Each structure stands twice: as structure tokens, then as C-alpha cells.
User: What shape does this take?
Amino acid sequence: MIYATRRATFNAAHRLYNPVLSEEENYKIFGKCSNPNWHGHNYVLEVVVAGDIDPATGYLIDLKILRDIIEEHVISHVDHKNLNIETEFLRNKIPTAENITIGIWNQLVNRIPKGKLYSVKLCETENNYFEYKGETI
Amino acid sequence: MIYATRRATFNAAHRLYNPVLSEEENYKIFGKCSNPNWHGHNYVLEVVVAGDIDPATGYLIDLKILRDIIEEHVISHVDHKNLNIETEFLRNKIPTAENITIGIWNQLVNRIPKGKLYSVKLCETENNYFEYKGETI
Amino acid sequence: MIYATRRATFNAAHRLYNPVLSEEENYKIFGKCSNPNWHGHNYVLEVVVAGDIDPATGYLIDLKILRDIIEEHVISHVDHKNLNIETEFLRNKIPTAENITIGIWNQLVNRIPKGKLYSVKLCETENNYFEYKGETI
Amino acid sequence: MIYATRRATFNAAHRLYNPVLSEEENYKIFGKCSNPNWHGHNYVLEVVVAGDIDPATGYLIDLKILRDIIEEHVISHVDHKNLNIETEFLRNKIPTAENITIGIWNQLVNRIPKGKLYSVKLCETENNYFEYKGETI
Amino acid sequence: MIYATRRATFNAAHRLYNPVLSEEENYKIFGKCSNPNWHGHNYVLEVVVAGDIDPATGYLIDLKILRDIIEEHVISHVDHKNLNIETEFLRNKIPTAENITIGIWNQLVNRIPKGKLYSVKLCETENNYFEYKGETI
Amino acid sequence: MIYATRRATFNAAHRLYNPVLSEEENYKIFGKCSNPNWHGHNYVLEVVVAGDIDPATGYLIDLKILRDIIEEHVISHVDHKNLNIETEFLRNKIPTAENITIGIWNQLVNRIPKGKLYSVKLCETENNYFEYKGETI
Assistant: This one.
């Protein structure tokens, strides 16, 4: 079993905000991340697929195919978007990096033709990264 | 003469939009960067100061002082902000990386106590960087 | 279960030296890393916490809280310090990256309020990294 | 149990080409990667070893020893080489990153004197990485 | 005057070889870089354009236009190519990073519609970079 | 005229301390950087040489020759050393990054056989960089 990673990037606006709470409560929890005028990030995404090598090609999966799947099912939904307003797969979720990471997993998990989705990693800033492997506690 | 650089980062939302043009004209010029729902970036800023070394300290300038000047006059105006709405020094400017870079120069140029502001560099994405040295053509 | 990583940096001096051995034996084992006049590094630390997401916040843990825990229990003990002389949690340990990594784990393992410490990673140079997950062989 | 990683780099030429298929079929599968005039990469290799710490040294393994093993058994076979023609351990393999990664594992797995080979990671471009841990499906 | 940089990457094979010299003389000058079976690199290219800002757009130049010019006149000639055999703009040149850098400058210098080509930077390995500004000694 | 850069790294201990001042005055100026027990850094050095290309080789200078000059005249004097005690070319200098950068320039300026030393850059931390070009004010 080999692991292959494809990296992609997107730029988006968001705001950390729980609509059942007041602005003051949101500010207390999220600080400047709850700014009602939004802020944004350059997100770096890494999608890891695991499986065995096809002897005819030496590939686990053609990473250009994986790139296109990521483009269609993830990047086109988030790049240059407002994650609170425009991203269907984050509807009714607070767009923290944790929820974005799991949302991306759910977009991809049934769409990898060869190999199996192993991990989704998301870097929100150079100091904060997140990873989801589909595990439950 | 030695050059000393201090690096800082900030996260912000913006939209490329010229208010004298229609939405359609803005879209034609700026594409998805004109999304009315905003998008955003992790900006990386490098401020370069030039001058001679103080023999008593071996410093051009204490970079902690430079860090605090950058924090007060730049970062606090742009970090977790909407650059179109909330940043006074970009008022009436389209917040392209070019205009942000020059705006940051103008915020800093008269506030460096030792040495002289030499250059402001701004990285908007991993593929696009900008630099301003106060030169006129 | 999601994994969240917080990155931090510190600068320190150290020397690889086993006090039960002679200077010559230390030099034979550790080479220039045993220089009695010390050398040092910019260490990059990554702390990985695992757990489930709080639905009220969308966070595993507020990474600003994790940052403050790392600052109080790790960074303040090692940044701009001599790891052989000044770091209590490395007392009687040879300050190899391996021992520093495990020492940092021990500083943090009972102090993460939400989620569970999953991994401590330490980068000593651009070619040498270390990771500890609390596993025993 | 601690994990120690040593990073190394090499530059090589290759071509993705299955000799049992025609040039046209190779082009259909591999695109410009099947260019008969070759192309090449700066590969970044990370070798991860796992084991316990020797109390006399504080080391899992002296990484200079690991560096020399990687140099002798991997780098000298691939650096500034043509991977299709000149690398014995890739003979009769299509030199995809997947097959190079597994070939490197096989070169190293029985040659680590302390600790156990845990993982081989190979970065072929800034967007494509691969990892092998000796697992079978 | 502002400087805008666009970054691009390409992967290529090459060989350092002066055809007027023998294989032995080439090996003496270029060492393993003269391997007749080729080797290759992931090249990182940065193209710097200088000029003033268009007040209607806030742009020096739309970097998507610059990206397309670089793609058409540089990347399509070098990516996944053999630089000794297939790249017209390097014909009769030894494809050292110095000559590639100047060749790229010549491809671009008359094709920048707004602003002026200021600099071409080329990173061949993580330790070796090159820059050309069209200067003569 | 082309510019060629060679990158190198070294690890060292130092302390910012002016011996004509008291410990208290040193602490007031340099803060934790004046720790009498030392601290240290992974320094990244970039040496830029400028000149014209030798048509016989396509090189400005063989970067392996430049690497060896840097190793002999810089790295061997600073790597795994205490910069206050052991580095002859910093004697009677406070080893700030500014003074280290100029010291490295002085070590190299008359030792480049082809081309001319153009710039010495030194990165002390990921946020602080320095450059010297031999200019006087």
C-alpha cells in the first residue's frame, strides 16, 4: 500500500460566527475572527489517497485525475468564495478550519476512482494545520 | 550601509472593485477577484530598512522596535479586516496588492527612527509578489 | 476525530555531552556537536492535538489557548536558553532533539484541556526532524 | 518509541514509459511525462526511522550514520542519473514516484543498524508527494 | 514605480556539455552534470516586471496576462522537455542555469504589454539561484 | 552581467553583549539575547556573485568552487561554534546578524576568482534577514 498526496490551494473569505449566539458572545469566543466585515486566507489543501500500484502504469492513481476531482468537487466551491455564504457543502456549519477539512473529506470520499481517500490536510495559516482521516472517536 | 528586513503576516478580506464601473465591467477586468461576497488572503509582508550600524549595539535598528512600528501602523489596520471597508490608509483605493504595498510604504516611511525605509515587499499568493521602493518613473 | 496542529519556534544553545564520559569520548560520539563552547539552533515545534469538534464553536480546541499553553509550559523554558543548564525539564538528560521532543511531550501531555495530545514534532535543522507520540515499544 | 527523519535530495532524469505498450499508448497514459527525450526533477527524500533512545547517547540513531547509509544505498544510485537506464534497483520498473519510493524502501529496509525503517517519503514536485511504510493491503 | 513578480515552475532534463570538447574534458569541467544519459530539475522561475499603476485597475499588469505570456513563450518550450535537444531558444547554448535565465529574458523582453521586464530569476536547486536584469558589464 | 547565488547553512551559539557595558545595561539593550548562558540559531547564508558568462562553460563561476570558498573561509569558522569566543573574523565585534553579515563579506570579497562579490544575505530567524553589498553611506 502506497500513499499519494496532491496539493492544491484556494483563497477565500470567512467569518467565525455561530448564528444562535449574539455578536457579543461570538466576539467573546472567536475574537477578531468574528469580524462581521469578514477576513480571509490562502488555504493549502493536501489530499492523501492510499492503495496499491497498478503494474501497467506504476501509478496508484494518475494525479492529474485526482487534481481534476479536487478541482471539480472542492476548489470550484471555495476558491475566491465566501465560505459562510457561497459554499453549499459548508451550509449550516461554522467555517472553522476543522469544519472545512471535514466538509472537503465528505466531498471527496466517494469520488476517488482508484485507491481510497486516506486523509485531508488543511493549512489555514503558517502556524495552524488540520487533518481528518474519517475516524470516529 | 546594511539592509535589515522584518517579516510579518496578516489575514484579510478584500474585493477588487472600481466603484465608477458597473459590476459587469468589474467582472470583466477582475474576474472572480471582484466577487461581491469577498475573498481573502494570508499576506506576507517584508519591510526593509537601510542604514549604518550603531557601534554601541551592533544593530542597524532593534528589530523589536521595527516590529512594533509595523504592528501599530500596518498590522493593526489590516489584520482580520476587510481592506475595502475598514482600512483607512486604503480609502478610495482599489485594494490590489500594488495599492496595498504602496499604502504600507506611506504608513511607514516617516516612522522609522533609525535607518531609512528602503523597500516594502508583499506576497499575496505563493505565485504573486510585489515590491515598492518609493521610486517614481 | 480531527487533528489540529499548532506551530511555534524557539532559539536555544546546547551541547551534546554525556557527563559520565570524558571529553574525548564525547567528541568521538558527538563530534562538533559536543563543542564545549556550545552551538545552537532555531527549533521549529509542532504540537498535534486530537479529539472531536465542539458543535457550539466548530473548534477542536481554540488554538490561541493551545498557543498559550505551549508558550507557558514549553517556550518560556527553552527560548533564548541554554538547554543543558537552564531547562528544568531536560535536567540530567543529554539535550538531543530526541530528548527535547520527549521532554516537551511530558510538559504538555496533562495540560491540554480539550482533545488529547497526539504528537510532538521537532525540527532541529532543515534535514533532521523528530516525532514522539507517547508510544512505548 | 521515537521517530527520526533524515532529509536528502537528488536530481535525476526519467521518462514514464511501459515498454510493452506503443509510444501512442504510452503518450495516452502518461502524456508529456512519456517524452522520449526525457525530463527530470529535483526529488526530496525523507527517510523515517523508529525505535527507542540509547540512554548513553540520547540518540535513536546517529543521523550522520543514517545520512551515510542513504548516500551509499540510495543517492549514489539516483543523483544526476537517468532512472530508466542507470538505476539498478529500478530495473524493469516504470520509474513513477510510487515505484521510486518503494525501490528506496527496499534499498534501506535491511540496512538500518539501530531502529527500524518506518517510512520513506518522496516529493517529486511541490504538488505531488508519496509515502511507503512497507504495508501490504 | 512598482515591481510585480509572477512565479512559475517547470520540470526538464538537461546535460552540461560543450560539443567542441571531448567527453573527458566535459567531465572534467562539469562532473556528473555532464552525464550523457541526462539528469533533470524542477526549475522555479520568477519574472519581475516594473512600471506604474493603472489608476483604473490598481494593477501594474494583470498577472493572469503575465502568466499567459510566460506560459506561451517560456513554459511551453521547456516544461517536460530536454533543454539540449528540444528548446529552440537554447539552441547552440550549453543549458546552464545562467544561459537558461538569459534565454528566458530574451523570450520575454519584448512581449510585456504594460510595464517593463525588470528581472528574471531562476532557481535550479534549493542551493543555487540565478538572476538576470539585462545589464551589460 | 548575471547574478549567481549559492546558499549555505550553519548552526552557532552567540550572545549579544557589549563588554564595555554592565550586565544590566546589556540586558536593557538586548533583552533575552544577552543571556550569559548563550542561545543559538540555524543561520541561512546566501552569497551572490555577479559577472559575465564564460562562453566555454556557460558558467559565471562553477558554484562548486564558490561552495568550497564559502566552506573554507566562512562555514568552517562559524558552524557549531560560539561566535563570541571562537570566530576570529568577529573578534571585538558584537555578533549581531548585521556584524556577522559584514564579517562574512570581508572574508569573501577578495577570494572570488571569477565574478565579483555582489551581496551577502543572512537569515537569522524566519522573521529577520540582513543584506550587505559593500556600500558605504
Summary: The helical segments of chain A are 23-30, 63-78, 97-108.
